[in-house]
Specification:
Layout: H1 3-17, H2 29-40, H3 43-56, H4 62-83, E1 89-92, E2 95-98, E3 101-104, H5 106-116, H6 121-137, H7 141-145, H8 148-165, H9 177-193, H10 197-201, H11 203-213, H12 219-231, H13 236-240, H14 243-251, E4 257-262, H15 271-275, E5 294-296, H16 306-310, E6 316-320
Antiparallel strand pairs: 1-2, 2-3, 4-5, 4-6
């Protein structure tokens, strides 16, 4: 790994914790040459190229559709296992058992151990499989490919954007550092009170249990969150509050599965950043920001594939680190 990429690696961690992206201090010689060629490109020619690319590429929802199918199947498997007592995937997303293997959500396990103030061996065993799984796939892949609240929030976002377009609401951004503060707050509450406060209000757990065991009053809290996201700030819970996303983002640092950005073909039209849940991870696609000719997107990326679907030039693609064949 080059010194430039090592520095970017550190910056990506800071971005995940809430720091705002900025212009890079140092870029590779190859990236510098490509940036210079792009600056020399006539603006009218560039606009024409952007128009031609959009006309050539039909709208695609390939990765979104795959993701929705996987998310539906995982959550449906919980429902089927419970109602028909087939014992394939028992429990809920926070704690479950798949074909006899215990699976414990990493953030939930941490909350429980902080509340009990000691390391619980059985929880460590259950988290081991989950840790390996999301370390391989990319931690925040859980958010977009498994979490049922993410799906509801995605639908709420569509309503929010329609209302914004109609000028009935405005999208309010919030300081992303709040997510790190909430992570510390929920950890401290578990430690001080001996109670897993976050688990009581987690929309991920609430929706998962409602799907499996039936709805309860806790769903009113989920509806309130969705209303806030529709009328005030899009994806507010996932972007600014949810400690699960931060926990899995840290796990995803070592993941071989990632989205890779190729600078040379990019026309910097910005379609990818418009659809991204966490647009700060795509700061590198802004003209003049890429530090190398090829740049892996940071670990706060949810691997949802929306940017891959939206990119008209194929500059964003899934890859497995160490393998030359792109997915």
């Amino acid at each position: 790994m080059s010194q430039i990429m090592r520095r970017r690696f550190g910056e990506q961690i800071l971005l995940m914790l809430g720091r705002e992206p900025g212009k890079p201090q140092e870029i590779s010689e190859r990236a510098r040459q490509i940036h210079e060629l792009k600056r020399m490109t006539n603006k009218a020619d560039l606009q024409e190229a952007r128009k031609a690319q959009r006309e050539q590429k039909a709208p695609s929802h390939k990765w979104r559709n795959r993701r929705w199918i996987v998310l539906a199947l995982v959550n449906l498997l919980f429902v089927v296992s419970y109602h028909f007592d087939v014992q394939i995937l028992e429990g809920a997303l926070t704690a479950s058992r798949f074909a006899g293997f215990h699976l414990i959500d990493l953030n939930s396990a941490l909350q429980v151990m902080l509340a009990h103030k000691h390391v619980i061996v059985n929880l460590l065993i259950g988290t081991g499989t989950v840790l390996v799984l999301w370390a391989l796939l990319g931690g925040r892949t859980f958010c977009s490919w498994v979490c049922p609240y993410h799906f509801l929030s995605e639908l709420a976002e569509k309503i929010h954007l329609r209302l914004v377009k109609m000028k009935l609401v405005t999208d309010q951004t919030i300081d992303r550092r709040l997510r790190s503060l909430f992570w510390l707050l929920f950890a401290a509450l578990a430690l001080v009170t001996g109670y897993t406060v976050y688990e009581a209000i987690s929309p991920t757990g609430i929706v998962s249990r409602a799907l499996i065991y039936g709805p309860g009053l806790a769903l009113l809290w989920v509806l309130a969150l969705l209303a806030f996201e529709i009328f005030f700030s899009r994806r507010a819970w996932c972007r600014y509050v949810c400690p699960i996303g931060l926990t899995y983002g840290v796990v995803g640092i070592i993941s071989p599965v990632r989205v890779k950005y190729t600078l040379e073909a990019c026309l910097h039209e910005g379609d990818c950043r418009k659809v991204c849940l966490v647009p700060h991870v795509l700061d590198t696609v802004i003209k003049g920001r890429a530090v190398d000719a090829e740049v892996p997107i940071g670990s706060d990326c949810t691997r949802c594939g929306l940017c891959v679907d939206a990119c008209p030039t194929g500059s964003l693609k899934f890859e497995v680190k160490g393998l030359s064949k792109l997915l």
